[in-house]
Amino acid sequence: EGGEMEVAAAQRDMYKRCELEPIHLLPTVQDVGAVVAVQRDGAGVPRIVQASRNAGRIFRVSFDWSAFLGEDLRVFFSDAAQIDRLLEKAEERAVHVAHQTYQGKQELSQGMDRHRESDQGMTVWWQGWYGDSERDAYIRACDVAGPSEKRWARGIVSLAGHDESCFLTAAHVKHGDAGLLVVEVEEVDSAVSVSASSVLESMRQLVSEIQVVDTVGDLCNTVARNMREMSGYDRVMVYKFREDGSGCVVAESTVDGFDFDRFQRFLGVCFPENDVPAQSKRLFQRNRLRVVHSVATEQVRLEPALVAGLPVDHSDTRLRGISGFYTKYLENMGVTASATAAIIVEGKLWGLLTCHCYGEPFTVDPSMRMKLSIASMLLQNAIEAHDRRTLQKRLARMDALLE
After folding, report:
1. What CATH code is carried by the domain that includes residue 10?
2. Per the count of CB atoms within 10 A, which of 129, 166, 346, 385 is most buried?
3. Where does the Phytochrome chromophore attachment site domain start and stop, copy by copy (predicted)?
């Protein structure tokens, strides 16, 4: 009995440490691309102030990360004007989102009271980095500023002196009293399309199937099956949150011949509230897709870890490093790679579209990431439409009773 109590206490301690981990500030990235942080100097030149250790390999240059510091980001690409346009677009979008956040969000003060009640002790996240006001600002940003997609500027670019195509994503983030541009660069096939119209065209079957199902359960099953067939993952599930923060798997689709003797069947299984930590739920409100390209591959450090004495906020970064807690969680399930897309219904985190790979990990290119994001949004829209129809029917029945 004493041993069981010690195990339970150790689990509670682990859950607490997991919930207090600042996952958006981890100084690592996944090795499928490079990440650099850029700050404009007095002349407006975008100078690199932080670089991932794999930047030389991804940028096709022979020097290591330290030689990137202070360099003009544009010199590494064949079209400097295109890079200028992408960076300026990211900055413009950041200003627009900040204005939207400031205007018409009168529920913020009430929301902060709610957060203070539910997040007791979480100020420990910020000790040594930020004060309470910065922490509160970050919570507000995740809750009401909208998805990261509103802040990104993206495009296919070419490296200087090379034929390789890369997918570049830029987002402007607050950093101390100033700001930084966080830039992600991934190698891609030049034939890969990242336009929403072409991706939607490839999802025509899913769109048509969603339009003819009536129940939320059927909607979830339809999306899970289609995305499993489309993505190449071994298992795709829809996980729905309950009011108390816990959740259940309400849909599950697996490849033919899936080894249920080795891997658990999750359909109908419910998980406690801390299975998805509070800060992960909050971050899903902001950055709605999380891809772990390989659980086993060592992550790459960002150098220096601090810029002007502070860690860089990677809330909007697709290649953001993976928490050691989450890595262990996936390993315990036998998962080698994963992708998770948030399902946001009426502005709240309704659930997750979760994909698991159990064999050889594979890189999920920007086109497939867009398909996963669109699938979660299609499901979101369908659930909202279903809820509206259900409400209208209830109101109609009430009206009939009152007549």
Report:
1. 3.30.450.20
2. 166
3. 215-381
